[in-house]
Design a protein that fits this description.
Number of helices of chain A: 14
Oligomer: homodimer
CATH architecture of the largest domain in chain A: 3-Layer(aba) Sandwich
Shape of chain A: globular
Strand content of chain A: 15-25%
CATH topology of the largest domain in chain A: Aminopeptidase
Structural class of chain A: alpha+beta
CATH superfamily of the largest domain in chain A: Zn peptidases
Radius of gyration of chain A: 23 Å
CATH class of the largest domain in chain A: Alpha Beta
């Protein structure tokens, strides 16, 4: 097991080379939701396999019904060390709307900012930049003599579309993927200077709803008033989903949603977090969630229902007096605690059907479902990771939650009983999923150093 | 003023000659939308001027930025009689798809059908056959001694392309075109045996609403629960616009909306119209409008509020867990009676603003506003026209509405303050705008007789 200092020095010395590698990966537009990019997803997977082989991993591309997985293994120099499974995803969100990007989304560049250099591109933060911090840490160890822990890596290419191939893949490869701890790098720092360990992840249930009325678009003058308007039906369903206090009205929705333990609630109150700053950064000022809840609760420990997209009728310039034959919306539910995604989706479908006029039909398109996950606050692994991050950043990490979901974490917890340590180096202003996504160069550099320290600490 | 019987006899005697004339007009392919037929449009206008001069009209071609207008005047034999303005259009839709025509579209022919002879050709019904019914009635009067009313005729050549030159032409020729009543022959009979007078046209107010929240699209996991979702805000506004009884909830919306006079309501109940057939034709079965109203009321005499299009967030394939920065919808209000479009739009804007959370801004994009046009049911002109049509057809005409707007009628109302009597002899199966367009010979013949009776009745 090489000395940690030597490994950290190697990471520092190799930063330029590491950036070049990351840019190579980012340049592959591996947009998982759009079939047009299927070949690019395969290329990204192969790129990762090639790079991991270069370091010394036993790496391979594994085909699925969707985009391929990447699986890689490497042993530690010593025996009887922890075996970690590192998870990341090489797929990215679509770059749209393209006209809001200052430069080409898949042409990564290093930009100067008052806070330092940053990498600007789709996928720079979510998740290519993040996953490469771990790869670079492994590279530095292996080039310095070897790994401190046994390492298995799993990269998937369908995280942005709800990981549809993952459950079957896990079931088929349980023995190969089983490890003592899961590591995930798809979360954020607390702030630019303060690391964070994410102990709670909200789950996610996704469903598209298509409401159909007449057999064709109708003239709103000739039929208006007599013919059902699917946009109105859909709007009423959406409006009915929340009450005046911001609570979701689905029957049974809050089953399994517990209040925070008093100790944790107290800790969260001490976190230097201002809801007004958080919202102010995106031009907002008023928490939109449940009345009486703090913003941290709203985004970490409370469930939500949101419409992510809606369409129906004429959307071009000017007016067209049409009664549309259909309208559709994409719904997402962020889940916490022990909420059952299937129960939520069942309640949702019933809720929609109850509000469907005789003259409408509904089609549901399931887009994915995963439960929330919570790491015990008393875990020894958690303590070691906290110390390692304290050493790298000079500040005690915040141990908190994440509003976003990482479906695989829940899947692994369920399938293999593995806990996950979620450490990420993104910042809240990274604009993931939005135009001009970026990743701080310091996140990339100190992220790799952090993983070196964490791997070292876990093995001791 | 010649005896009506003599005029009707002359129409009967001249039918063959009248058909020859109509065929001559139809043979000119005056397709307004296609520049290749520009010369033909001019030829059709000149053909009409020549024909009207033959009868004794003071007729002329008037150039516009587009296709020319035809304006013609003739005085009645007596003074102090009504002055009517007759409107029609000589332009036609393109004949495509040509291969679906059984014979040449611009080679009119008389075809036998189980229901009688019919004229088959592009423009036979829309609107050359219809406008010539009026010209033939005038011809018969003038050949019998003179017109019973002062008559001004306006034929345009751009109706099928939205009448772009009409508003300016009306404004520039107000004094010349001003009359006491407008007559239009571009509508249908109720059915093969029952004439119809269209006395109500719904108005239309259009407004696009754009709701903006955060300064950019947000990740629904990171911000979901705390950040306002403009789709939700818009959906609540849409849902709030109707109550559980299908009534529009805008304050003051029903100001100026009168109940039908009992006599009219009773007449509408007798109209052989089945709402279930009307809706069934487009796959629907349940009237969606105000509880307790008939389908005829819903589409003719009641106002509506409809969303014609909605968009916001991600609308592509699969899912994208985004909280959109904005959502927009195109609203249309069909107006009746004395509803004031500006008052409706003002109430609507206030309604939207009242429902706007602190964190949202709204932008309104006005798309147009025109009031309903309604000939008073008590109008003496209407009563006379009803009696005239009853005499010709032996059946009481349906006095109804049209849910759609006929923009030119609104233009005349706005520019010249004239009410319109819309009487047409087309049938629903005339296939206007489609291959094998036809006009019943009985429509042409009895149409001319009907206009003779109407002109006679108006003058009495």
């Amino acid at each position: 097991m090489p000395a940690l200092d030597a490994v950290l020095s190697r990471i520092d010395a190799n930063l330029d080379e590491a950036l070049k590698r990351l840019f190579g990966l980012i340049a592959i537009p591996s947009v998982s939701t759009d079939p047009a990019y299927k070949g690019d997803c395969a290329r990204a997977a192969q790129w990762l396999v090639d790079d991991l082989k270069t370091i010394g991993f036993d790496a391979s591309v594994r085909e699925t019904a969707g985009h391929p997985m990447v699986v890689a293994h490497a042993k530690a120099t010593r025996r009887d060390v922890p075996h970690v499974l590192f998870y990341g995803h090489y797929d990215v969100q679509p770059a749209d709307p393209l006209d809001l990007w200052e430069t080409e989304p898949f042409a990564p560049r290093l930009a100067d900012a008052p806070t330092g250099k940053r990498i600007v591109a789709r996928g720079s933060a979510d998740d290519k930049g993040q996953l490469m911090t771990f790869v670079e840490a492994c590279r530095a160890f292996m080039q310095s003599g070897g790994l401190p822990c046994d390492v298995t890596i799993l990269f998937e290419g369908e995280e942005e579309t709800g990981s549809p191939s993952l459950p079957a893949f896990l079931a088929a490869n349980k023995d190969e993927l089983k490890a003592s701890l899961m590591l995930v790098c798809d979360t954020n720092m607390w702030d630019r200077d303060t690391p964070m360990i994410t102990a709670m992840l909200r789950g996610l249930a996704l469903e598209e709803v298509i409401i159909r009325g007449a057999t064709r678009d109708l003239h709103s003058g000739l039929f208006g008033g007599a013919a059902v308007n699917p946009i109105h039906v859909l709007a009423r369903i959406i409006a009915d989903l929340h009450d005046g206090q911001g609570r979701v009205t689905l029957p049974g929705f809050y089953d399994g949603v517990a209040e925070l333990p008093e100790e944790v609630a107290e800790q969260w109150k001490q976190i230097p977090f201002k809801g007004s700053d958080f919202l102010g950064a995106v031009g907002l000022s008023t928490p939109a969630g449940e009345a009486g809840r703090s913003v941290l609760e709203m985004i970490w420990s409370r469930p939500t229902c949101d419409v992510n997209g809606i369409s129906g009728g004429y959307a071009g310039a000017g007016s067209k007096t049409v009664l549309p034959a259909q309208a559709s919306a994409k719904f997402s539910f962020r889940l916490v605690g022990k909420q059952d995604p299937e129960a939520v989706l069942n309640a949702f479908r019933a809720f929609v059907r109850e509000r469907l006029p005789d003259d409408c039909r509904v089609e549901f398109q399931r887009q994915g479902a995963s439960p929330a996950l919570q790491l015990p606050f008393s875990s020894e692994m958690l303590s070691r990771a906290r110390r390692a991050l304290l050493q790298e950043w000079g500040k005690e990490p915040v141990v908190g939650g994440s509003g976003g979901s990482i479906p695989i974490v829940g899947d692994f917890k369920r399938s293999l009983g593995m806990d996950a340590l979620m450490i990420g180096f993104g910042l809240d202003d990274d604009r993931i999923h939005s135009p001009n996504e970026k990743y701080e160069l310091s996140s990339f550099h100190k992220g790799a150093r952090s993983w070196a320290r964490v791997l070292d600490a876990l093995a001791k």
